[in-house]
Automatic annotation (TrEMBL):
Keywords: Metal-binding, Zinc, Zinc-finger. It comes from Dipteronia dyeriana. This is SWIM-type domain-containing protein. Residues 326-358 form the SWIM-type domain. One of its GO terms (molecular function) is zinc ion binding.
Length: 420
C-alpha cells in the first residue's frame, strides 16, 4: 500500500514540475515558432507583482501565418470569440478567435492562454489580434460573441469598422432567467431566423402579446446584432449562434489538462494535420462548391418546388409563395425574402427561377462559398517544429507559473469514511 502511495505521488510531482516548467519554455517556443513559420506571432506577456520579485506568467498569444493568410484570403470576414477553462493546478482559460471556411467548417485563427475572462484579458487578446491581422484586413469584420466582459468595448476601440453579433442562444437563456414563460424562447428563436422585416415583426408580435416585458427586453438589444434580416450582407453568413466556437472547444477538450506548452504544441499538430486532410479531400469533390453548400442548395431546391415563377425579363422575376410575391434578380443576386443576400446561397425562390431557366445553381453561390476560396483557406502550410531538445538556447528571465487564485467561500473539508 505504501509503495503505491509513493508511486502515485512521484507521478503527480513529475506532472506538476512539467506544468511549472512549461511556462518558462514559452520564450523558446515563441522563438522556434517564428523561426520555422516566418510571419507568425507568438507573444508572451509576464507580470512582476512585487518589484524585484519573481516574474510570473500572465498571457500568451499565438497565431500562425498559415491561419492568418487562410483567414484573410479564403474565409468570410466573420470571427467568433469564445473561451474555455483549462484543467489543472493553475486557473487559466484558452481564448480563441475562430473563422468559417467555405464548407462551414471551423477554422481557428488565433489562440491565447490567459489568466481568466476579464475586460483586461479580452482587451489584450483582441488588441494582439488587430495588430497581427486587423491592420491587413481591408474588409469590414463581424464578430460574434456571448457578450463577454471587455469584448464589445475593445471591438469598438480596436476594430472601429467592425460589427457585432450576439449568440441568440445566450440571449434566450438570459431572457428565460429574467422572465418566466414556456414560449418566450420559441417566439424569439422563430423571429430571429426570419430573413425579412415583415416576417420578423409577425413573429415577435406573438411574444409581445404574451409577455410585454420580455418583448421590451429583446427589442432593447440592437436588432442588427441578433436578427438575420438586419445582418450585414457582406459577411455571407446567417449564423445566429456561437456553436462553431463551442465546437472548437470540444475539439481541444482532451488537451485542456496538459501543461501549457504541450497543449499549444498538440493544437498546432492537430491544425497542421487537419489542414492537409481538408486540402486532400477537395480532390473528391464534384463541381465548384463544397459539400455543405451542395446540401443547402438541394434543400432550397426541394422547397422551391412549391412556388410559382413569373418571368419579367431574362434576369428579373416574380415568384409567388403561397399568397405573397417576391421579386428575384439573378443579375444582382437578390430576393425580397432577404435570405440570398445574407447567406450567399440562393433561397427557395431563386432556386425555383434557376431551375425554370435550366441554369447551374453553383454559378449563383457567392465566391466565399466556393471551392476556390476553400483552397485559398487551406493552401497555406503550418510548418513542422522540431522536438524540444533541438530548440536553440534563448536567454530570458525565468518565468514562473501564474499565481493560484483562492476561490471565494469556505474551502471544502475532506472527510474520511470511518469503518465501524
Amino acid at each position: 500500500m505504501w509503495t503505491l502511495y509513493r508511486a502515485k505521488h512521484r507521478v503527480l510531482d513529475k506532472a506538476e514540475n512539467q506544468n511549472c516548467n512549461s511556462y518558462n519554455k514559452l520564450h523558446s517556443y515563441g522563438h522556434i515558432v517564428k523561426e520555422r513559420n516566418p510571419g507568425s506571432m507568438a507573444y508572451l506577456q509576464t507580470i512582476t507583482p512585487v518589484p524585484g520579485g519573481p516574474t510570473l506568467f500572465q498571457r500568451f498569444f499565438l497565431n500562425f501565418t498559415a491561419q492568418k493568410d487562410g483567414f484573410l484570403y479564403g474565409c468570410r470576414p466573420f470571427i467568433r470569440l469564445d473561451a474555455c477553462h483549462l484543467k489543472g493546478k493553475f486557473s487559466r482559460v484558452l481564448m480563441s478567435a475562430v473563422g468559417l471556411d467555405a464548407n462551414n467548417g471551423v477554422f481557428p485563427i488565433a489562440l491565447c492562454v490567459a489568466e481568466g475572462e476579464s475586460k483586461q484579458s479580452w482587451g489584450w487578446f483582441l488588441e494582439q489580434l488587430y495588430l497581427h491581422i486587423g491592420l491587413e484586413e481591408t474588409r469590414r469584420v463581424t464578430f460574434m460573441s456571448d457578450r463577454q466582459k471587455g469584448v464589445l468595448d475593445t471591438v469598438v476601440r480596436q476594430w472601429p469598422r467592425a460589427t457585432n453579433r450576439f449568440c441568440v442562444r445566450h440571449i434566450i437563456a438570459n431572457l428565460q432567467a429574467k422572465y418566466r414563460g414556456p414560449l418566450n424562447g420559441v417566439y424569439v428563436w422563430d423571429a430571429t431566423n426570419k430573413s425579412n422585416k415583415r416576417e420578423f415583426l409577425e413573429e415577435i408580435e406573438k411574444l409581445k402579446l404574451v409577455n410585454i416585458d420580455a418583448y421590451n427586453y429583446v427589442m432593447g438589444i440592437p436588432l442588427k446584432s441578433w436578427c438575420i434580416h438586419e445582418f450585414d450582407t457582406h459577411v455571407k453568413s446567417e449564423h445566429t449562434t456561437n456553436n462553431i466556437s463551442e465546437n472548437f472547444n470540444s475539439w481541444v477538450d482532451e488537451l485542456r489538462s496538459l501543461p501549457a506548452l504541450h497543449m499549444l504544441e498538440s493544437i498546432r499538430r492537430k491544425l497542421m494535420k487537419r489542414a492537409n486532410k481538408r486540402l486532400e479531400s477537395t480532390k473528391k469533390w464534384d463541381g465548384n462548391v463544397p459539400p455543405a453548400v451542395c446540401k443547402k442548395l438541394a434543400k432550397m431546391q426541394d422547397k422551391g418546388r412549391f412556388v410559382t415563377v413569373l418571368c419579367a425579363s431574362e434576369t428579373k422575376f416574380e415568384v409567388k409563395d403561397e399568397l405573397i410575391y417576391y421579386n428575384v434578380d439573378l443579375e444582382n443576386y437578390t430576393c425580397d425574402c432577404g435570405f440570398w443576400q445574407v447567406s450567399g446561397i440562393p433561397c427557395k425562390h431563386a432556386m425555383a427561377v434557376i431551375n425554370t431557366k435550366r441554369l447551374n445553381s453553383h454559378d449563383f453561390v457567392h465566391k466565399y462559398l466556393t471551392k476556390e476560396y476553400y483552397l485559398k483557406t487551406y493552401s497555406h502550410v503550418i510548418n513542422p517544429i522540431p522536438n524540444e531538445f533541438l530548440w536553440p538556447e534563448i536567454e530570458h528571465i525565468e518565468v514562473l507559473p501564474p499565481m493560484k487564485k483562492k476561490m471565494s467561500g469556505r474551502p471544502k473539508k475532506k472527510q474520511k469514511n470511518e469503518q465501524r
